[in-house]
Amino acid sequence: MSDIIRLLPDSVANQIAAGEVIQRPASVLKELVENSIDAGAKEVHILITDAGRTCIQVIDDGKGMSETDARISFERHATSKIRDAADLFALTTMGFRGEALASIAAVAQVDLKTRLENEELGTIISVAGSKVERQETISCPKGSNFSVKNLFFNVPARRKFLKSNQTELSNILSEFERIVLVHPEVAFTLHSNDVELFHLPVSSLRQRVINVFGKKLNQQLLNVDVNTSLIKVNGYVGKPDSARKKGAHQYFFVNGRYMRHPYFHRAVMEAYEKLVPVGEQISYFLYFDVDPADIDVNIHPTKTEIKFENEVPIWQILAASVKESLGKFNEVPSIDFDTEGMPDIPAYNAAAPIQPPKLNFNPNFNPFQKTASNYSRPQVEWENLYGGVEKAERRSEPDYEPEVIDYPAFQDDEIEPEQTTLYDHETVAEKSSVQFQFKGRFILTSVKSGLMIIDQHRAHIRVLFDQYLQQIKNHQGVSQGVLFPEILELPASEAVVLQEISDDLAAIGFDLSNLGGGSYAINGVPSGIEGLSPVQLIRNMLHTAMEKGCDVKEEVQETLALTLAKAAAIVYGQVLGNDEMTKLVDSLFACATPNYTPDGKTVLSLLKEEDIEKLFK
């Protein structure tokens, strides 16, 4: 039997490794910028072309590399930060495994220009598909200049699965935000297709957060600063009144590295228990300083998942620190006691003699004697007091016969033998002209087969969804101008997604004008959404679209229509007149699928006449 196991060529092995580290253009940006920071750069310039498909260029003023280091840096597991296994538990740098450049060079065409500070000449190296094509000596500035072109040029299957340019650019900006938020001592610029999206000078940590997410956030942040022997926590948390359902900015950083940690997220949210509505989120930017020996960052290729040795104590410290910040800045509701009429408490005087309290009472009082002298209060003639009640009751009685309402009877037509769950137009044939509202939530109406119960809120969602979706597809939305335009401020990562769905928003009826710098003026809103906040409505639709992925056009249109329908639908408890209920029921059964909401919730249910009769046997 012949041998079948063989070693893979280096080019294939590098492509497999690249699949773990380089998932999209944002992964390339992350690895290159982290290398620049590890090299001690004070300025980093990033240039993006076609959302990273065509080119990603990162230029820094770091220490640079020698000719030999530049050549060997593209080999797998070539690193200057690890010498033995013990170094894995004392990491203070961003990158350390030596996989980034090798993985990028395996799936792209890379040009590197680099020079050491004390050298007159530098080196240029060109690598494509893990093969070195050129290495020369050139004149170049101090630091490194990486140019990554045609990502996944030799892996067409991977390139085909990249998302739209707006989606990929949004991912790049999200990764960029995670890096710049933890390095305010480094200046950053980012250009996309020659348009400057970010210009971040060296600043304080708070100013860096404001520069990234907008000045409005400055009024919503509370300081957090706790230092213990186990961990140091500092940063900012949002005020309770800044909570939102979607789009909260939530960041954890450990020793200068971004991480995801649902367990610690629950610790933060527990501090806001009963301070914010259920389901709403708070923005936070929290930075942990921990002994590197107490964490393990080497459990995930992208290093965004970190294992802590002392998770439970850190959880308690984190929750306590957030609660302390809320209390220190008076963001926890206080209880005001009404002190009016309360006796004054005398101050303690050590020289004054102590007097026992005196009790005043009537020694002759006997509750079992009915003599008036035993009571300290005057007798009340109760008969005279309530004497006019009977007359008043008689005056309040109506002097007319109450109106008898003739309720429509159920139809006596033959009931179909099978139990149906989908109700068509025949089921609601001969519908009663009078509807009844039950507890401000359900509409009851008599139909051919029995009694139909309709959830008014869900029914209106069904009707509005079909209406808005049709407007989007036909671009027939009716826009209603506003007297005072509201301003919508978005970070760059959300602004690019808004541009992707702007046509669909306009089709619904939103009229937006770009003011620059991530600010938009809302000049018009869809008719029929009076009383709703257009800023919050657009934010919800925007973040829902980001979750779905902007490149799925039809799904995004349905998402926008459903979000707007839920916001504009009749709320529970709203009292409806008979004409309003009749119009809603008629509109519901004009829909193609009246039985369920677009997200699959039951709209109506039928209580058959035979089942009603069984209740009275």
Automatic annotation (TrEMBL):
GO biological process: mismatch repair
Database matches in InterPro entries: DNA_mismatch_repair_CS (IPR014762), DNA_mismatch_repair_MutL (IPR020667), DNA_mismatch_S5_2-like (IPR013507), HATPase_C_sf (IPR036890), MutL/Mlh/PMS (IPR002099), MutL/Mlh/Pms-like (IPR038973), MutL_C (IPR014790), MutL_C_dimsub (IPR042120)
Keywords: DNA damage, DNA repair
Domain DNA mismatch repair protein S5: start-end pairs: 209-327
A single GO cellular-component term on record: mismatch repair complex
Alphabetical list of SUPFAM superfamilies matching this protein: ATPase domain of HSP90 chaperone/DNA topoisomerase II/histidine kinase, DNA mismatch repair protein MutL, Ribosomal protein S5 domain 2-like
Entry-linked Gene3D superfamilies: 3.30.230.10, Histidine kinase-like ATPase, C-terminal domain, MutL, C-terminal domain, dimerisation subdomain, MutL, C-terminal domain, regulatory subdomain
Family classification: Belongs to the DNA mismatch repair MutL/HexB family.
Function comment: This protein is involved in the repair of mismatches in DNA. It is required for dam-dependent methyl-directed DNA mismatch repair. May act as a 'molecular matchmaker', a protein that promotes the formation of a stable complex between two or more DNA-binding proteins in an ATP-dependent manner without itself being part of a final effector complex.
Protein name, per record: DNA mismatch repair protein MutL
UniProt organism field: Bacteroides luti
